[in-house]
Write a structure and sequence with these properties.
Length: 78
């Protein structure tokens, strides 16, 4: 489908949209426009991940096998 055809279809949807669809389209457009640096991790986040990894590698945090995770998830539903 060509860009112009797709644009025309979207415009038809917008022209006949109710307030709910218009709000969703607006949210989608705003999300699309978000600059990458707004969602990128900062240095503080990388430091936090490094600290947590070091703690895990030193055996200071709990680690589960996939079977344990699956069992916990199944038991959580009950």
């Amino acid at each position: 489908m060509a860009t112009m055809d797709l644009r025309d279809i979207v415009i038809d949807y917008v022209n006949s949209a109710d307030i709910r669809l218009l709000r969703m389209i607006k949210a989608l457009a705003e999300s699309y426009q978000t600059d990458e640096k707004d969602v990128a991790l900062g240095e503080v986040h990388y430091q936090m991940m490094d600290e947590r990894r070091a703690s895990h590698m030193a055996g200071e945090s709990e680690s589960l096998t996939w079977d344990q995770v699956r069992k916990n998830a199944r038991n959580a539903k009950k």
